[in-house]
Specification:
This protein is mainly beta. The protein is built from two helices and 50 strands. Strands 1, 2, 3, 4, 5, 6, 7, 8, 9, 10, 11, 12 and 13 form a 13-stranded antiparallel sheet that branches. The chain has a six-stranded parallel sheet with strand order 24-26-28-30-32-34, with no helix packed on it. The chain has a five-stranded mixed sheet with strand order 14-15-16-17-19. The chain is elongated and about 125 Å long. The N and C termini lie far apart (about 90 Å). The model is unreliable at about 1-45 (pLDDT under 50).
Length: about 650
């Protein structure tokens, strides 16, 4: 930490044409001195006594008298690796009340000019004595033309700060590492004896505080990450402006880190997998960039971003499993892919009105139950809120233009209960991706007046031209669903868990492909009719349609995907010669199934084709076919057709 103390020397010149007298008084800016003494003592964690001259009388032009005055310090006590430095600031002019100015200059003991802001004295810790002094002189640089009283003020500043190391000194000390980007010695990491603590500081007056970038600790660890098993605490000092890529990568023992107010960037993966970091993370207002993966897999419970960021980058807080609350800045416009993904303890988020875009997986794999704000949203990215463990309360804002594919997808896995309440599609929405509403439950659909792209009929969401069925509500739906002749496409998961339908008739449509999970969980559907234009049924399309006893396979059907009819109630399956591919478990887990007819003599039949069908006894097919072989291998009766 830098400790700044000041002594102000006030130069007052009383001058005739040839005579100058300059009275000088000493002032401590923290405590006004009494009686104009020029000696001030400091009592803090660093201590010293400093002295400046009470009067300075600049000589005439060319008469520098460099030994006339002295600045000295004594009884210096400063911390290890610190340095006491004295600087002087002055205008270079003594000025008369009417504004007349005479230039002057200070000179060091070698006759060299002392410029305003120069360091004139320094004293390092560890030196054998506790005193230091310099002499200086003052002289006019132009002759006076008018008599009068001329004055100026010079400020002597005494600062205890970290010692500036040379690169050779750093390389010679095993507890120091040069980690600067512009020059290695510009930023230094200083470890204590057992490498449990590190102090990172800007080294030297010319340092810009930029730390270099590193590789993952799994490849070439940074000098900091080399001590990841012992490092407990990191103190990043004022003056450091950038924390480099992977600087603290995988420092899993690290429990404490402090950031300076000079910090402008925390680079990619800077604290990735620092799993012991916990409590509240405060991002200082000075920070202008948080890199991708910067805090992924950390243990913070609360995040307060005070920086005026416009972007949260990719995977910045990915895998922060303990995260419970996030405070986002009002300047934010974009939350990128995976930024808060896999934050399982995060149950609510307030999205600032300034945010216009949420990236792919931005809040995926979370426990979000409440999403508030977001009035300025224009884009919700693909899979943005997928794999949610809870029912989500969210009002889609007017101004929203796009909802990405699988934005609210939830699997039928234990522990996941993702769903939405009543969904109103704003008038401004122009694009909804495939499976956007593929969550487990949705109570109802409506479309705001003025939307030209979508309509809702009986809680079923379609495109306005009727060519695409996007999603049916799982509640408040009719028992019968009839597809119109204009329908050419049904989204994956479109009728998932729609347990109110008993009769679904798409026989008059122009469908060619039944996508994954389209009818999965339609447990009350007794009849589902498809047009003969269908050539492909994808994986799990009819999974768990337990009431479906009969099904007429389209006569142009070519491909049946993995587990497409798994868990159905079919008693007989009849596959025509057009069927050329059947996936594993296509008809598995069906206690009602008693017979299968396979007319393609060369169909490749997977050994798990009808796994766990305890009442299956008979296979029909052509003599010498793969069906006959498969029946024999699995102990079924084969009847040639």
């Amino acid at each position: 930490m830098r400790k700044r103390k000041y002594l102000c020397g006030i130069l007052a010149a009383l001058m005739t044409l040839t005579v100058l007298v300059l009275p000088v008084s000493a002032i401590d800016v923290n405590e006004t001195s009494n009686g104009g003494t020029a000696t001030v003592s400091y009592n803090n964690d660093s201590t010293w006594t400093a002295a400046i001259p009470m009067y300075v009388a600049p000589n005439n032009v060319g008469q520098q008298n460099v030994s006339a005055y002295e600045v000295a310090v004594k009884d210096v006590v400063i911390g290890d690796n610190q340095q006491l430095a004295a600087t002087v600031e002055y205008s270079g002019y003594v000025t008369e009340a009417n504004g007349v100015k005479i230039p002057y200059q200070l000179y060091d003991s070698n006759g060299e000019e002392i410029q305003s802001g120069d360091t004139i004295l320094s004293k390092s810790a560890g030196e054998p004595n506790t005193e230091a002094a310099i002499t200086f002189g003052a002289a006019l640089t132009a002759s006076p033309k008018y008599a009068g009283v001329y004055t100026d003020t010079a400020t002597f500043a005494f600062t205890a700060k970290d010692k500036a190391y040379t690169l050779d000194e750093i390389n010679a000390d095993e507890h120091l590492s040069a980690i600067g980007k512009t020059k290695p010695e510009y930023v230094v990491a200083r470890f204590n004896d057992d490498y449990s603590e590190v102090t990172i500081f800007a080294n030297g007056e010319d340092s810009n505080g930029i730390m270099k970038d590193f590789f993952s600790a799994s490849l070439i660890p940074s000098p900091i990450a080399k001590h990841k098993e012992t490092l407990l605490s990191a103190n990043i000092m004022e003056g450091v402006t950038t924390i480099g890529q992977y600087a603290f990568d995988q420092c899993e023992a690290l429990i404490n880190v402090t950031f300076p107010n000079t910090l402008t960037e925390i680079s990619d993966a800077a604290f990735a997998e620092c799993r012991a970091l916990s409590g509240t993370l405060v991002i200082p207002s000075s920070v202008q960039r948080l890199g991708s993966c910067a805090f992924q897999y950390t243990g913070f419970e609360h995040i307060d971003i005070r920086a005026k960021l416009t972007t949260i980058e990719r995977d910045t807080f990915y895998g922060c499993f303990s995260l419970k609350s996030v405070k986002l800045p009002e300047t934010l416009t974009e939350i990128n892919d995976g930024a808060f993904s896999h934050c399982g303890s995060l149950s609510s988020i307030d999205i600032p009105e300034s945010v216009t875009s949420l990236g792919s997986n931005a809040f995926a794999y979370n426990g979000l139950a409440s999403i508030t704000g977001g009035e300025g949203l224009e884009v919700i990215g693909d899979e943005c809120f997928q794999w949610s463990t809870k029912q989500i309360s969210f009002v889609f804002p007017e101004g929203l233009k796009e909802i990405g594919a699988n934005a609210f997808y939830t699997p039928a896995n234990p522990g996941y209960d993702g769903g939405l309440n009543y969904v109103t599609i704003p008038s401004t929405v122009e694009k909804i991706g495939d499976g956007a509403f593929s969550c487990l439950t949705i109570k109802g659909f409506s479309v705001a007046s003025g939307n030209k792209y979508f309509v809702a009929v009986d809680n079923v969401l379609y495109t306005a031209d009727g060519t695409r069925l996007i999603r049916c509500a799982t509640e408040n739906s009719p028992t019968t669903l009839i597809g119109s002749a204009s329908l050419t496409d049904i989204d994956p998961y479109a009728l998932r868990n729609c347990s109110l339908f008993t009769d679904i008739d798409f026989s008059k449509t122009k469908l060619t492909n039944i996508k994954e999970y389209t009818f999965a969980g339609c447990t009350t559907a007794k009849q589902i009719s498809l047009p003969n234009t269908v050539v492909k049924i994808e994986q799990l399309a009819f999974d768990s349609c337990t009431s479906l006893r009969e099904f007429n396979f389209p006569n142009q059907l070519s491909e049946i995907g993995y587990a497409a009819f798994s868990g159905c109630g079919l008693s007989h399956v009849s596959l025509s010669e057009t069927v050329s591919s059947v996936g594993s478990l296509a008809f598995a887990h069906n206690s009602s199934l008693t017979s299968i007819s396979i007319l393609n003599p060369t169909l490749n039949i997977n050994s798990w084709f009808a796994e766990d069908c305890p009442n299956l006894t008979t296979i029909y097919g052509k003599s010498g076919s793969t069906a006959e072989t498969w029946a024999a291998e699995n102990g079924y009766t084969f009847i040639a057709q």
